[in-house]
What does this fold into?
Amino acid sequence: QVQLVESGGGLVQPGDSLRLSCAASGRAFRSYTMGWFRQAPGKEREFVARISSSGVSTYYADSVKGRCTISRDNAKNTVYLQMNSLKPEDTALYYCAGNPYGLASNPANYNYWGQGTQVTVSS
It folds into this structure.
């Protein structure tokens, strides 16, 4: 069982940067694929980024590719999402999630979820 707690969200202006953090508790964390998802009001939850258990492989949604970097520090049981050049359309509740089975972009494949951290991009 992995418990996830996100932090780092906030209100920023277009073009600003944020680094979201996801602190995990649980010994199995290092074997999990980790992902970031987001959900805006009135929209379905969408995939943002994922990272393999080793941290070597990463994958991004087209909407954030080139602007976001997912990383993990297994020694600290933490996953990060660095977001640069933020746009108003990035506004959403961002969730960290864990998948014990492997790489996936479908949120249905992720078993463990944090409570979310709000990112609001507005001028």
